[in-house]
């Protein structure tokens, strides 16, 4: 669990560093000791809340994106069409993993070992075929309609995380207009706020691959 928290903190710090150029392109450099304006404080607090949404995504997907994005985009340069294609493939794979891993769950066997599986409409299908769980126990993990909304929310959160990544932005939009810059700041924050409200109102009870484990 400590490793999970440390990784999430590193992801949040990286996200906060990514947003700074977007927030400060139109302003001259200031003394770090000079107090921030109320608008800047509000934006920073809002973004910090959005950065915490990374905890709702599979750790492996977010970490892979943060590690591979600078290399695949050549630090945001994307000098060739191939680099843009590879970056698009990275975004697609990470987004797909965030969506699909939302349908995974975990269960403890008779020896207390954690077993992962895929939730289906009939119950939990354990990945390790050598382990069998009782049908009535597997039925408790069956797929529900709310799971699809959680998966869609996870997909939107990852899109917001990707939109805050300066390497991705510079790759696909090297010279954004002022309107685009405002959109790149406001839209992900709006998505983050809406998804945070959704997860608070309808929390996920699943503990799938890449998510914190249950103590039970």
How would you briefly describe this protein structure?
By secondary structure, this protein is mainly alpha-helical.
Essential attributes:
single chain, 216 residues, mainly alpha, three-stranded antiparallel sheet, 59% helix, elongated, disordered N terminus
What is the mean pLDDT? 76
Radius of gyration: 20 Å
Order of strands in the sheet with most strands = 1-2-3
Alpha plus pi helix count: 8
Note the beta-strand portion.
5-15%
Give the termini separation: 14 Å
* Largest sheet features: 3 strands, antiparallel
- Portion of residues in helices? 55-70%
Instruction: Characterize the overall form.
Output: elongated
Which segments are poorly predicted (pLDDT under 50) over 5 or more consecutive residues? 1-5, 21-31
Following the backbone from N to C, one meets helices and strands in this order, namely: HHHHEEEHHHH
Number of strands: 3
Based on helices, strands and strand pairing, what is the structural class? mainly alpha
């Amino acid at each position: 669990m400590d490793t999970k928290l440390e990784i999430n903190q590193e992801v949040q710090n990286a996200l906060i560093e990514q947003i700074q150029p977007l927030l400060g392109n139109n302003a001259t450099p200031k003394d770090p000791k000079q107090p921030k304006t109320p608008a800047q404080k509000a934006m920073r607090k809002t973004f910090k809340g959005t950065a915490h949404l990374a905890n709702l995504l599979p750790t492996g997907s977010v970490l892979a994106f943060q590690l591979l994005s600078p290399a695949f985009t050549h630090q945001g340069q994307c000098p060739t069409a191939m680099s843009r294609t590879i970056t698009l493939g990275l975004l697609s794979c990470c987004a797909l993993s965030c969506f699909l891993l939302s349908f995974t769950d975990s269960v403890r066997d008779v020896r207390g070992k954690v077993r992962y599986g895929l939730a289906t409409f009939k119950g939990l299908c354990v990945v390790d075929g050598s382990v069998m769980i009782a049908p009535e126990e597997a039925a408790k993990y069956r797929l529900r309609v709310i799971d699809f909304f959680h998966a869609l929310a996870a997909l939107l959160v990852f899109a917001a995380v990707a939109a805050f990544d300066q390497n991705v932005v510079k790759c696909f939009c090297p010279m954004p207009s002022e309107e685009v810059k405002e959109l790149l700041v406001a839209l992900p924050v709006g998505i983050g706020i809406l998804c945070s409200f959704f997860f608070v109102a309808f929390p996920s009870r699943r503990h799938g691959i890449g998510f914190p484990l249950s103590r039970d």
